[in-house]
Specification:
With 251 residues, the chain is mainly beta. The protein is built from 1 helix and 17 strands. It has a 6-stranded mixed beta sheet, with no helix packed on it. Strands 1-2-3 form a 3-stranded antiparallel beta sheet, with no helix packed on it. Strands 4-17 form a two-stranded antiparallel ribbon.
Length: 251
C-alpha cells in the first residue's frame, strides 16, 4: 500500500538517481592545452548495464582529457594508444578491445597477447554487450565508444564528434571512406581461417582505396582532420600531430 510518505520517498530517490545520470562537461584552456573534463556520463541515454554479454555496472567518473589547443603536424606517426579521442561530451573513444585469441582459454579469448590476434570489437558487438551508440562499460564502470553511434544522421555533413590526443578534430562525414581493407587469403597462424574481420590483424592499409590516409585523416582546406567512418577502423588509430600522452591518463 502506498502512502503519501512512501510516494514522497521514492520521488526523492528517483530524482537523486536521475541527477546522478546527468552529463556534466566543462571545456577550458590550461596553458597551451585545451582540457575537457566530465563526470563520464554521456549526453544521451546509454544501454542497460550490466546485461547478458556485459557484467559491468556503469559508474560516474572524474575524467580530464587535455590536448594541444593549436595542433601541429610532425614528421612522426604515433600508434598504439588505447584511448584515441574524447567526445565533445567528455566520453573516451576506445575502439580496441583487451582480448586476444587464446586456444587455451575456455572462451577462446584472454588478455594474453601472445597469439598476435586481437579481437575486433565491431565484428560481433553483441558479444561485448555494446549498445545502440556503439558504446559499453568496462570493469571500472567507464562508459566508452568503440564506433560511431547508429543514431548519427548520414545526411548531415561534417559533424564534430570530438578531438584526438594531438588536438585535431574528429569529424563524421558520410562522404569520407576508409582505406583499410580486409586482407586476402588465410591467417598465417592459429586461429587460422580467412581474414573475415574478427581480428584487428585481419585488416591492412591500402593507399588510395578510400579517401582517407592510414590514420583515417585528410587535409581539408589546408587543415588536417581525422574522420570517423562506418567501416573499419571506425576511428583514427594513429596520429600525425604532437600527442599529449597525459591525454590517456584518467585523473
Amino acid at each position: 500500500m502506498y502512502t503519501l510518505r512512501n510516494v514522497a520517498y521514492w520521488f526523492i530517490i528517483l530524482t537523486l538517481s536521475a541527477n546522478a545520470q546527468e552529463n556534466f562537461t566543462n571545456t577550458g584552456i590550461r596553458g597551451s592545452m585545451t582540457c575537457i573534463t566530465s563526470n563520464g556520463v554521456p549526453d544521451h541515454r546509454i544501454g542497460k548495464f550490466p546485461n547478458r554479454a556485459n557484467p559491468n555496472e556503469f559508474k560516474e567518473q572524474k575524467l580530464t582529457f587535455c590536448f594541444p589547443t593549436v595542433p601541429r603536424l610532425t614528421n612522426d606517426v604515433t600508434w598504439g594508444l588505447m584511448t584515441v579521442g574524447v567526445s565533445i561530451a567528455g566520453i573516451p573513444i576506445r575502439p580496441y578491445t583487451a582480448d586476444y585469441f587464446d586456444k587455451n582459454s575456455k572462451r577462446g579469448f584472454s588478455k594474453n597477447p601472445s597469439s598476435g590476434w586481437r579481437k575486433q570489437a565491431m565484428h560481433d558487438p553483441r558479444s561485448l554487450g555494446i549498445d545502440s551508440h556503439n558504446g559499453h562499460v568496462d570493469k571500472s564502470g567507464l562508459y566508452h565508444y568503440h564506433s560511431i553511434s547508429k543514431n548519427l544522421d548520414p545526411n548531415k555533413e561534417d559533424i564534430l564528434l570530438g578531438y584526438t590526443p594531438d588536438g585535431f578534430k574528429i569529424v563524421f562525414s558520410a562522404k569520407m571512406t576508409s582505406s583499410w581493407q580486409l586482407k586476402s587469403g588465410i591467417r598465417s597462424s592459429p586461429p587460422g581461417g580467412i581474414h573475415d574481420g574478427q581480428f584487428e590483424e585481419d585488416f591492412e592499409y591500402r593507399p588510395q582505396t578510400g579517401s582517407l590516409d592510414e590514420c583515417n585523416g585528410k587535409e581539408i582546406n589546408g587543415i588536417y582532420t581525422y574522420f570517423a567512418t562506418s567501416t573499419y577502423p571506425f576511428f583514427p588509430r594513429c596520429f600525425k600531430g604532437e600527442v599529449n600522452l597525459s591525454f590517456i591518463k584518467r585523473n
